[in-house]
Amino acid sequence: MAALVSSARPARAALGSPTPSYVPGRCNIGREEIAARRRWGHLGSIATVVALALLLILGAPREARVVLFFPAAAAAVGYLQAWLRFCAAFGLLGVFNFGRLGVHERVVDAEALWRDRRRALGIAVVSAGIGAATALLAYIA
């Protein structure tokens, strides 16, 4: 069987482990990356609330509220990635990181890469759905 990753260290259970490691389609980021994704979720949430408040204060047309899709989807991407311990962009690019920010290791196994890309697309679809639902609720309200 081909090696899953370019790293020589053995894989450990990703979930429940104090130091998670790469598991195809399940876990591709460590503590620092998770914290960065959580911050992205916070920023997206704040941007969504601020944008809605501005739209309401300025008396913008109801249709303008659909722009809330973007910050709400961004917040969802951040929070989902932190919760799932999986970076969608890393999954698409075929990399993972359990060390300091900016240092990546490459996934070399084709099946592992396929699992990562499938998970990444799932995160994108769910995030888009959350963004759309947020925009729809803002439009209806």
A few lines on this structure:
This protein has 141 residues and is an all-alpha fold. It has four helices and two strands, in the order αααββα. A two-stranded antiparallel sheet has the order 1-2.
Helices and strands in order:
Elements: H1 31-57, H2 69-84, H3 88-93, E1 95-96, E2 105-106, H4 110-140
Antiparallel strand pairs: 1-2
Helix pairs in contact: 1-2, 2-4
Protein architecture, described:
It is built from four helices and two strands, in the order H-H-H-E-E-H. It has helices spanning 31-57, 69-84, 88-93, 110-140, and strands at residues 95-96, 105-106. The chain has a two-stranded antiparallel ribbon with strand order 1-2. A hairpin with an 8-residue loop joins strand 1 (95-96) and strand 2. The protein is elongated, with a radius of gyration of 18 Å.
Number of domains: 1
SS class: mainly alpha
Number of strands: 2
Strand order of the largest sheet: 1-2
Largest sheet: 2 strands, antiparallel
Average pLDDT, all residues: 90
* Number of separate helices: 4
- As a percent range, the share of helical residues equals 55-70%
Unreliable stretches (pLDDT < 50, length at least 5) are: 1-15
| Portion in beta strands | under 5%
- Rg (C-alpha, Å): 18 Å
H/E element string?
A: HHHEEH
Q: What is the straight-line distance between the termini?
A: 55 Å
Shape: elongated
